[in-house]
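User: Teach me something about this protein's shape.
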Amino acid sequence: MAPTPPGAATPAPAASNSQPEPNCIRLTDFALDAENFGWFIVNDNVMGGQSRGGPVFENSAMLFEGEINTDGGGFSSVRAEIAPTTLAGFTHLIVRARTDERTYKVTLEDRLETRDRRVSQQQTLVFGDTDDDGWQTARIDFDRLDPRIFGRAVASDPFRPDLASQLGIMISDGIDGPFRIEVDRIDACR
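Assistant: First, the predicted structure itself:
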């Protein structure tokens, strides 16, 4: 991310030190001093595309930015492995972020396969009201996830939180150009 130009307002830092809501646990704490928090990049170049993107960790948040090229694939994502049973007993996620108004999705995997392929369970982030610092929250209900393989809808068993193995943020909105989402935190809730 480019430095803030002189005289420009510095974005308000994330409030990651706030506590999770009752019945929730914090899955991400970007305020910790760690290199990349285990997040890794999966862009459309895995299928011949030319999109680029990746995470930067600063101001106690994860900034995921890059550029989508719809000529071959048209997606970019960041993902993190999660420990077995981390989501057991939970029903939804709460994501707090600031965005550029493009459409982003949360992706979850639970080790289940269809047609010998791992299923990516996805749901679009639909944000509510914006606070004074530009932060918004979205709720991702596990029982409303859409199963997909390579972006295509498939019939699959429902998502199994007790088998969850991976969490991600993805953009695949079919629009060429730059994107930017700043994620403050992701909580799992009952």
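Now, about its shape. The chain has one domain: 24-189. The first strand starts at residue 24 and ends at 26. If you'd like, I can walk through any region in more detail.
User: That's plenty for now, thanks!
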